[in-house]
Amino acid sequence: MTQIDFQSRVGVWWTSDAWSIQDVRSRAKEMEGLGYGSLFYGEAFGKESLTQAGALLGATERLVVGTGIANIHSRDATAAEAGSRTLSALHPGRFVLGLGVSHAPLVEGNAGTYAKPLATMRTYLKRMDELSDEVEPGAARPARLLAALGPKMIELSGTAGDGAHPYLVTPEQTASTRELLGPDKWVVSEQAVALTTDREVGLRRAHEHLHMYSQLPNYRNSWLRQGFDESDLVVGGSDKLAEALVAIGDAKAIAEHVRRHLDAGADHVVIQVLGDDPSADPLPALREIAPALDL
């Protein structure tokens, strides 16, 4: 397996686009101090992924930083490969390049073209591999994980990448991903969490979180493959879907849900704290959850 130096088996997933990079860096330092092994983040409308990775890697000592995911429509393959090699050369084993095809409404709404996601990703990875070894000579290429939901993209993440970064999946889907990839590829699963013992509050946070995703075909198809049906795919998701995809409860309950992914075959799980608004500070919840995770 391509090297990733996770210091623990649980990390954080936090898109901090509404925060200044100075504040994000200070919170990344505290996450590292709490024992979390990574910080992953998305890329859709805000900060540029590779620039942010460099800022976070430079602010920490052991924390793995991962793009979850870098949108392949936002930069060409040569730029992605060259930038990621430089980050790897500066911080060996601590940068993970997560790549994804994004979603048709987001790409086409930004004047891009969204066609044949599997073929597009395969070609993109091939072009990355064609970059000369003279770029950062001697540096190890960072691990590449694909945002893989369907079986064909999961297969590609194993044959042309170093593993998968499943997002909004059940532990059972983590197990399916592991089965498809075999034992020698990385599986880094995301798990949304709502730290509250008030079920109604937890469900409200979960439905708000799922509101956008429930309108994107890639996720809707993924949830149907995971055993849900059309009645679960209402905007914001049904209560059944929300409670399956979001761990709601106290720190102990959340830790138990995270361990279900680990027991299902995940190498590493990144938890995404859901607050009362998308820009809420995740650190209070992360401080409370950390002891239950034995970090």
Automatic annotation (TrEMBL):
Domain Luciferase-like, first and last residues per copy: 10-268
Gene3D superfamilies: Luciferase-like domain (3.20.20.30)
Listed Pfam families: Bac_luciferase
InterPro entries noted in UniProt: F420-G6PD/mer (IPR050564), Lucif-like_OxRdatse_MSMEG_4141 (IPR019922), Luciferase-like_dom (IPR011251), Luciferase-like_sf (IPR036661)
GO MF entry, a single one: oxidoreductase activity, acting on paired donors, with incorporation or reduction of molecular oxygen
Superkingdom of the source species: Bacteria
Entry annotated with the keyword Transmembrane: no
SUPFAM superfamilies membership: Bacterial luciferase-like
NCBIfam families assigned: F420_MSMEG_4141
PANTHER family per UniProt: 5,10-METHYLENETETRAHYDROMETHANOPTERIN REDUCTASE, PTHR43244
Name of this chain's protein: LLM class F420-dependent oxidoreductase
Annotated organism of origin: Saccharopolyspora terrae
